[in-house]
Amino acid sequence: MPTFSKFITSQRGAQQILDSDGYIYSRKKSGDTALTSTWRCAKYNPPTKCKCHIYLALADNSLTLGTQPHNHSADGSVPARQEVLLSLKRKAADQPLSATQNLISETLADTAAEVNQTLPNLESLARVVQRSRASSSGSAQHAEATTSEDFILPSTCTSTRRDEPFVLYDGKTDRELMVVVNYFEKTYLGSVTVDSEVRVTPAFPSDFWNHFDRVLEDPDFPRTSNMVEGFHRGFKTRVNRPKPSVQEYVRAVKEEQVMTDFHLDRLSVGKTPSKRRRTCHTHLHDICSFYSTYPSKIDYVFAVAKYFGNDIE
Ligand SMILES: [Zn+2]
User: Fold this and answer.
1) Are 276 and 227 in contact (CB under 8 A)?
2) Residue-level pLDDT at 141
3) How far is the CA of 42 from the centre of ligand 1 (A)?
4) Which terminus has fewer CB within 10 Å in the chain: N or C?
5) How far is the centre of ligand 1, averaged over its atoms, from the C-alpha of 262 (Å)?
6) So where are the chain's domains?
7) Which residues have a Cβ under 8 Å from the Cβ of 38 and sit 6 or more positions away?
8) pLDDT band, residue 264 (cuts 50/70/90)
9) How far is the CA of 74 from the centre of ligand 1 (A)?
């Protein structure tokens, strides 16, 4: 017969009971008597659909088991996992200016390897931080737009603190866009000279940035150094200033090691990193292999643009 162990807090902030066997119960809204409150197994939802109930005596916190037994074994890692996620949420709401990476490594600093193995991946943890912030700052509604057309800049972004207009241009006028187009042409293609059809050699000629051959060879090979930049940016936020002392640098490296251990703990039980890093670019490979069959170069460019999510009419 299990006994009352302690009250714990669910990921959503609701009170739950942990019993001495490691099972968790949520409060049931009905069925209370003057002397007891009614709780049901936290796994009452599909797919488990456990029907086990317990009754908590208000006088001395003693437990009485209902007639239905649990139809599953207890997952001892749940309370620790919930505690980590809850503490991350609280940190996110309390420290709106701290970098997400820092909050996560701060939270994971003392977690055991067994807890790390059950936690969601790093991207999901970052989303926990972002969602917690969005709901505490009231900006969640702006995150709902799925296309750039739907997205409307909130007034907090378009005016200064003195309520003067801040964003002067948020539209599709060609004249303004030509600045970007001209810059692109000059830097990556070379401007056309006035008296001839020849382009001036640009700062970054096409054989420097063109990935056509590389995509044909291995479409999944990274075409940018974005993931390295991401690492550098994340590491920079750990140091806070351009020229850290040796002590500060060592502390930052140790914090980084927390994340490495986190990944290793998860890899050791067969959990791969995020889905995003496993994207497959065979379709892009197809577009490149059919380069010569497109009616015109611009059709080919449109096909590539469409692949990257830019539907140009
Ligand atoms: Zn159960």
Assistant:
1) no
2) 46
3) 7
4) C
5) 29
6) 4-65, 78-140
7) 27, 28, 30, 31, 32, 53, 54, 55, 56
8) very high
9) 8
Residue 309 tokens read as 């999510």
Beta-carbon neighbour count of residue 185 at 10 Å? 15
Compute the average pLDDT of residues 200-216.
Answer: 90
Q: How far is the CA of 70 from the centre of ligand 1 (A)?
A: 4
CA distance 62 to 55: 8
pLDDT of residue 139: 56
CA of 65 from ligand 1 middle (Å) equals 11
Span from the CA of 49 to the centroid of ligand 1 (angstroms): 8
- Ligand 1 center to 272 CA (angstroms): 29
Q: What are the tokens at 153?
A: 């800049």
pLDDT at 278 over 80: no
Q: Specify burial of residue 105 (Cβ count, 10 A radius: 0-12, 13-18, 19+).
A: buried
CA–CA gap between residue 179 and residue 172 (Å, rounded): 13
Both tokens of 141, joined, read 């509604």
Are 206 and 188 in contact by the 8 Å Cβ rule? The answer is yes
Distance 68 CA to ligand 1 centre (A): 9
Spatial contact of 68 and 53, defined as CB atoms under 8 Å apart: yes
Query: What are the structure tokens assigned to 162, written together?
Result: 């003195």
| 77, 114 Cβ separation under 8 angstroms | yes
Task: Give the closest residue to 227 by CA, choosing from 188, 181, 276, 272.
Answer: 276
Q: What is the pLDDT of residue 95?
A: 86
**Whole-number mean pLDDT of the chain?**
84
